Amino acid sequence: MKSRLLWILAAGAAALVAQAPQPRAVAIVDARIVPVGAPVIAQGTIVFAHGKITALGTHVEVPKGAEIIRGKGLAVYPGMLDADTTVGIAEVSGHAPGTMDVNELGDFNPQLVSGKSVNPTSDILGTVRANGVTTVLVAMRGGRISAQASLVDLGLYTNDEMNLERKAALWINFPSSRGGRGGRGGAAAGGSTAQQLQQLADYFAAARRYAPIAGKTQFPQPAMAAMAPYATGAAPVIFSVSSAPDIRAAIKFGQEQHLKFILAGALDAWQVIPEIKAAGCAVLYGPLTSMPSSENDPYDAIYTTPAALARAGIPFAIVTGSAADSRNLPYNAALAEAYGLAPAAALEAVTISPAKILGVDSQVGTLAVGKRANLMVTSGDPLDPRTQIQSVYIDGLLMPPSKHKRLYDQWMARPDGGK
Amino acid sequence: MNRCFRYAALLTLAALPLAAQAYPTPQQAAGLAAPGDMLISNATVLTASHGRLENTSILVRAGKITAIGPKLTAPAGTPVIDGTGKFVIPGIIDEHSHTAVDGGVNEGAPSVSAMARIKDVINPHDINIYRQLAGGVTIIHIFHGSANEIGGEDAVVRLKWGLPVDEMLYPNAPQGIKFALGENPKQTANPHGRYPATRQGVNDAIRTTFIAAQEYRRRWDDYHAAVARGETVYPPRTNLNLEPIVGILEGKVLVHSHSYVSAEMQGLIDISDEFHFHIATLEHCLEAYKIVNEIKAHNIGCSTFADDWSYKMEAVDGIAYNAALLEHKGVRAAINSDSDERARRLYQDAAKVIHYGDVTEEQALQTITLNPAWMLGIDKTVGSIDVGKDADLAIFNGDPFGPSALVEKTIIDGRVFFDRAQDLANRKPVAMYERLFKPPLSLGLADDGGGQ
Amino acid sequence: MKIASALLLAAACATAAAQCPHNSYAIKNATVITVSGSRLTGASVVMCNGVITAVGADAAIPADAEVLDATGLTVYPGFVDGFSQYGLPEERAAGRGARPDGAEVAAAQAREIAATLDGIPVNDPRRYLDPQPEGVESDRRTAELLDPPATLHAVRDSGVLASLVAPADGIFKGEAALVNLVGPDAPAMLIQPRAGQVIELRPAGGGGDGYPASVMGAVAVYRQTLLDAQRLQTEIGIYQKAGEKGLPPPHYDPKTSALIPLLEHQQAAYFVASDWDAILRALKLADEFHLTTPTIIGATEADKAIPQLQAAHAAVLVSLSFAPAAAAGGGFGRGGASPEEQARQRQAAEAVPAALAKAGVTFGFATYGMTARQQVVEQVKAAMRRGLSEADAWKALTLWPAQIVGAGNQLGSIEAGKIANLVVASGDPLTGDSSNQWIVADGRLLPVHPAERPARGGDRAAGGTQ
Prior knowledge:
The complex is a heterotrimer of chains A (419), B (452) and C (466).
Chain A: H1 12-17, E1 26-33, E2 41-49, E3 52-57, E4 67-70, E5 75-78, E6 80-85, H2 123-130, E7 133-138, E8 145-153, H3 159-162, E9 163-173, H4 193-210, H5 222-231, E10 236-241, H6 244-256, E11 260-265, H7 273-279, E12 282-285, H8 301-312, E13 316-318, H9 329-338, H10 343-348, H11 352-357, E14 375-378, E15 389-394, E16 397-398, H12 403-412
Parallel strand pairs in A: 1-4, 1-5, 6-7, 9-10, 10-11, 11-12, 12-13
Antiparallel strand pairs in A: 1-2, 2-3, 5-14, 7-8, 8-9, 14-15, 15-16
Helix pairs in contact in A: 4-5, 8-9
Chain B: H1 2-15, E1 18-19, H2 26-33, E2 38-46, E3 52-61, E4 64-69, E5 80-82, E6 87-90, E7 92-97, H3 127-133, E8 137-142, E9 150-153, E10 155-158, E11 175-180, H4 183-187, H5 199-228, H6 243-249, E12 253-259, H7 262-275, E13 279-284, H8 292-297, E14 301-304, H9 322-328, E15 333-335, H10 346-355, H11 361-366, H12 370-375, E16 393-396, E17 407-412, E18 415-419, H13 420-426, E19 428-429, H14 430-437, H15 441-446
Parallel strand pairs in B: 2-5, 2-6, 7-8, 11-12, 12-13, 13-14, 14-15
Antiparallel strand pairs in B: 1-19, 2-3, 3-4, 6-16, 8-10, 9-11, 16-17, 17-18
Chain C: H1 2-15, E1 24-33, E2 39-48, E3 51-56, E4 66-69, E5 74-77, E6 79-84, H2 90-93, H3 102-116, H4 126-129, H5 142-145, H6 152-157, E7 160-165, E8 172-180, H7 186-189, E9 190-200, H8 215-241, H9 254-257, H10 260-263, E10 269-273, H11 276-288, E11 295-298, H12 306-311, E12 315-319, H13 325-328, H14 339-350, H15 352-359, E13 363-366, H16 376-385, H17 390-397, H18 399-404, E14 422-426, E15 435-441, E16 444-447, H19 459-463
Parallel strand pairs in C: 1-4, 1-5, 6-7, 9-10, 10-11, 11-12, 12-13
Antiparallel strand pairs in C: 1-2, 2-3, 5-14, 7-8, 8-9, 14-15, 15-16
């Protein structure tokens, strides 16, 4: 693990330019603490230092010299994890290609690492984090095999520091039987669906042949080398799919290829719950703000799917599949809550559940001793859109206000009058 | 054995996903055509005009709200909805919609297309009408697109699902027209060199159009004067592209202008000063917060997104706090969808105005009810829960701004046009609906009709 | 003039069958499906100068008549096609069924726009204050465009012998003509040269960059064009009232002049409209300009608009393509339907004729929009499988469309006095296995060439539509 300094910032951007402060522990006292996965602490204290949570509970000793934050009337929640985004690599989505690093040319690009170009000072990133999303899976979208998706903490300073797991999963836009783009990606390889599937299978077969010589051969192939952990089932692949027939096909493909696979998007999952359950795979479901795929579908088909997944015992997370809209992750979860998902399960679906699915639950997803100090201080339930997010800490650092808040403060201060 | 089998069959059926109910039959729709009576009893009422009322009943007669208060009673035979534990709000008004438009929302070829009329191309059978009803929406303001600096005429439509278009148009709503500034009119159709291609040019084309409309009006005035003098003259040609502009000059047509950056909004305000017309709303207006004083001075409404931004260059200074800032500084803000999808959850978007900028519950509610009604010129009859107003209401399972809010019933003119319980009861198991509506692929493709 | 002479001849022949030297023709010993009356067996059909003079078992056959012995064969009236582009050269026939690809369209439009706006600077306000529309072809006369292609015999061989014809492109497509689908030249084909105006409220360029580019733009063009025509009417009235002096003469723009007969109800109004909403829109806009008793062509979802069709006293010419409305919509608003949804819509379209018959809406069939692989008789059989009676199917192919296009006295049944358009077939085409053997078009006997008879059955029979 990388070591990093813990800098405590008194307040806001002004402190950023001040002399680097000494690392201090932080203690939020007298707050309602919702750790997720453990009982709520009605009034207690949480302490973190050097980027990690060191203590939490009703009776916790505040370390000497720690910065004390009064939490009375406030609540502390773990930061949220959005397991399907383009945060940091997509800035202005329309008519500004210079701000986008999402779609690469070519159909098979497993050698690409999505998180490599995440911009730490992205304005979008700042608004996402200000709403309590502290970790995201960043995935490029182009072609058939888009890239490796990266888990990124939305902290400050450098891209390198932010990457929690650069090679978290392999993103695949699964061929669609409906033509057009499969999954979320742009246009991919031509030919019939069967031909596209065969191409993908051939690619995995080649990667498995290459795996034993990876790192040894004098003729290295970065793409094949990158495929090795995914082709052999050591690391997860993510199939971006939408329709029910495509979900069935993706499951079949994953099983035939002996892959460790996850479904992403999966909007029509409600039609194939038994098949997904039998496959034992996890689902990154969303965005909830999607339309039902057919006008014959129930109007609430998307909203009710998380509850159906939960009832079936299928591991799932709620995701936004977006950059700017990632800030609405909690409200995606709220839509699921309104249509039958238990409130606790809705919160888990944007915290610990994605962390477990992506294998980083020992680091993020709940408030527990030893985990990263990724958390938010709020006026209440973060899934309630009326709730105010007072402050957000990532790896123990207090995050500065978003561009939105800065401009708001600036123009609120404009005197009356004018033309 | 037999019983076990039946039980298993029942379980299987229960586990099957369900498909939606069908379009209302003419018989069902006929029952909804005339305004209705009803009593909603003992609910929490968010009025949007005079605060939150607990344990309150609403009496509706012939489609109008006739009484609001505790423990109201209704004449025998009046349908009663038990509102215990429920929240009632005014029907949601989506101030910026392109739902249910047939054959393209833009007449994008000429840079002024005032002759196009949304009312000509409304599709009353669009499934999105039903989906939006299910989100508590009762009125949508359907706009021409933003490909031209002056687009077509709008329609204010009530979501009376199952009824013909003519019965969906909001009675006596003033005619409005779409203007558009910035990137969209600049970029559209420029492969063929369509003027204008800059914000300055957009401003010029609008000015020029108003000058032409003044001239056009003079020609008609001269004609009428000549006829009055008993002269034999030919009438001028009716130009459908200038008629609505004359309507604006005469105060009969409301201007709703798509806009992003503060300078282009200021430019249009200047034109309105020069030609003495009023701008009803700035649409989107992501940078309205930068010229809030000027907007306030001209009594312009701002219809914006809750928090959408950064989807193009002119949207990078959009802030989620825009609506709250406008409200804090005395400008009326509406939260709109501009989207078939987002329109289904405007209540959640309105709650974000509390999240970003901390307005009151009533202010947040007004952004999707009374304020859009005011912008459309229909706030005297709809938009809040007040005696004498239309009984356009949405009933929620709980607090509409809370994390588990869903719409149970949507009411227009005292008739229930969406009822979640009924919707659930009418659903068919998917297996059955696939048999009914989704023939096997082989059958569809073997038939040689149509395919080319 | 053709009509008048035919009628005169018919009258003459009825009174004196013998007065038809060297131009008399008869079919005898046939089963005759008259459509207007009962089915006859062992009957004769006698024709003179292209007109039927006698029908029946006891019809007298002139001694000098050429006779075809049709023992074992069936004679039925030639189909009257409610709308098609038969007889037009290819480029005029090009409708949305055969549209050039996007690049060609764009290039053509670019040329057209450049031509239209020739000499007007790019920033001239005229370009946006009064944009010049594409697709107003009201002054185009089908009668003058006819140029029968050599392939027309294939149409006749399928049984279609007459059709209402106008070009497929445009909002105002021009003046339609009712034509016999047999040459030798265009004038010989005309039954009614000025049969009405055909209108379609869709962008002329299929949604390209020209104006209009949307349905609402097409509606605006329709409205502006008819307002202009009304203004010309007004000017003419004022000018005449003023004794044609003291004022400049009215501005006789050809496109608006051509629409005055429509406004004055001297010509029929045909609206091409396929889906439900397009039909309702057409009826509304016909009413806006008091175009009474409009006829709807296409009408894939006419069953959903029955009350409005009845209220407007509108007739319907149902396209035998049974194309899904989404596909027919050409990507406008309703595009992107899944194959399953399209199949469902096609089945629904096949049920439309039965629904119209049940409701008593006046309708007939049209081949407009049919693909090259589709066959008239097979399409009608699909409608029969969805409830259309055999008797109504016959009428919808012959007499009803003839009546709708204003030729009920001339076409559509085997009766004395009507134009001699007949098909001689082995068996009954709607109920059994049958193939056309001879065509009698405008009184001329033409053999059906077996090799050129369209292939039958095949995958369609195997696939079925049940």
